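Form 7-S
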Amino acid sequence: MKYLSTAIFIWLLSHSVFAQDGPMEVFLNGKSVVLVSASPAALPSYAWQKIGEEIHLSLVESGADPIAYYELEDVVLSEATKATFAETFNKRIVQSIVVITRKQDGSFHLQVYPFSGDTNILRMGQSLSTTASTMEEFKGNIGALGRNEPTGNLLVLEVPEFPISPTGSGSGSIAPYLKQAPLNLDVFKLGVVLTGASGESGFLTTFRHDLFGKSPEQREAEQNAEKQGLEVVFKEVYTHQVEFLTEALSNQQLIQNRVQFILMRIEGREGDIMKSMGVSIPPETDVNRIVVKYYIKFLVRNELYIGAAWDAHPYWKDALTAFLTQIVQQ
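Output:
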């Protein structure tokens, strides 16, 4: 029993140490997944897949083992999609996440974080990073990342792989979207999470090409402007209690404060959002139109309510007004 206990202790210690490895260690000694967000307005134009094709050999040269490339916007579309991707990454024993951002000004940015093992995707803390103004400079910088470090990644892919998104397979562990309004909105508070208040759970979204690089002052100014706009809409349309959330709180803390519902927001291609929510796509739908869709998460039972009518809209105020109007009336 003594030897068994010692063996268990050593196993736990080794796994604990491994779990706390920094970005360079996991980058050079395990599988990586690459998430790419590319501004369509940047010149010269690079689709996200093209960026993956261009940088793949540079990542291999650096000592990494990039096993799959995905578009960042697909991953952060909702909590449900992040949960599905996290499950896939765990099954494939992914150790690090490489995030590539191409901003509107044409610059390229790379960040490497350890995989968190959960729906946060990234484990916040130290990161490995590089940036460049051109693709050739970017490839050179990437190739040099681990040049003077030993790597344990020996059998790696010579060409990049772009797997089909795992979100199409479905999973019983992910909450379904319900085409109705939740009950008891008049009894409990509706929490409204403002931009920048999502904490670790929303960290990955900050690497989206339209958000990356904004200063804390910019985020605070946007948060204040958003709150003012939200207050106007809620005052006009919503007749129940609302609580604006400017910092990340646990579900337990929210429920203790009688906040059992959270207003959620998705922004992305309309076709992607409708597909992820299980909504039929009419033939006349512009599936590439960028829209905002609101829905409500019921914390106690982890249920997601999108309303009976499809109300996504390119302008967030119109989308929010339509959504709040129908859930109050139902």
